[in-house]
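Table 4 source record.
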Amino acid sequence: MKIVGVICEYNPFHMGHKKQFDAIRAAFGEDTAIVCIMSGSFVQRGQPAIFHKSLRTEAAIRCGADLVLELPVSYALSSAEGFAAGGVAIASKFCDYLCFGAETGTAETLMATAKCLLIPEFSAALRAQLDKGISFPAARQSALLALGQNASLLESPNDVLGLEYCKAILSQGSTMRPFVIPREGSYHATEPDRENPSATSLRQLLTDHKAWQSYVPEAAVQIFTDAAIYTITAGERSILARLRTMSDTDFEALPYGSEGLWRKLMHNCRRCATLEQILTATKSKRYTRSRLDRMVMCAFLGLTAKDMLAIPPYVRVLGLSEMGRSVLKIARKSGQFPHVGEKTGHEYEALEQRIDDLYGLFREGSPAAPREKLRVYIKGK
């Protein structure tokens, strides 16, 4: 039995994700186990997940996944590098391969470029570019070009994330091998494509209360129909209330606030009326909007730079099939799997509970009650 990992958000699960599952089993066989490491209540864009993680888990299992594990929030709200590194660290405990999509990259070209990104000469070239005051993505492209390397793999979002996965595999000494499939369709498309919809376009349909069902597998449609949706707009006042009551020390402790960015954000939080005004006033060519979105969400959730650097002490199971149960047994026997039940007493569990309690404030209509019991979805029950 081959075990293939997928690092994901399923925000929401759609036809493209089902195609990935089909491609995995076409390549490795029907007895292949698919292990998904999925963001929980909040996703890498610094936003709440549009559906509750229990529903996204059930959709993934019903559509072909065998085991869904929660990517801890300190990885889920990290940069692409941190997101990939956290996912790879978990997947490596279970999987033979890591499957991901890429616009143009292959396993060979992505691994070759990833090796270049890890050499000392690249670090020096990158620092030289950052010192010019340009954004990190632009500096990284320029640094690669300065070393005479092809920087085209840094131009498309899935290629970029694929590079981070390959970097993590190399730097962690993981035995996993990348299995790359072509990413068809546009990652950021605002108009959905029937076979290759973007999650961005589906979230827009959901928030606009327009028809979305034809872009989602039937098994997932049944789960998502009439489900509560969660949006940043619904929770804006809650975010503003937190930002307006933070002290200077609170802002200074935030992640992603280096080089005085925390001070600029703090100033704008104290003079701007809306969240969009705050983010627009704080953004510059050096700091990407996604970095600011994550920074603000961390502020709302009470996550400090120290919290984001902490290594989570366990992995939480969100759902599994019978084959997934077998994968868990193998991992437990090998001593690779630090599983957690409902109560551990560990301080990271208290942090997770706080995060999930606050997620309910982003529910459209009326806020969800806190302390919702996490339900592990088991296929067949």
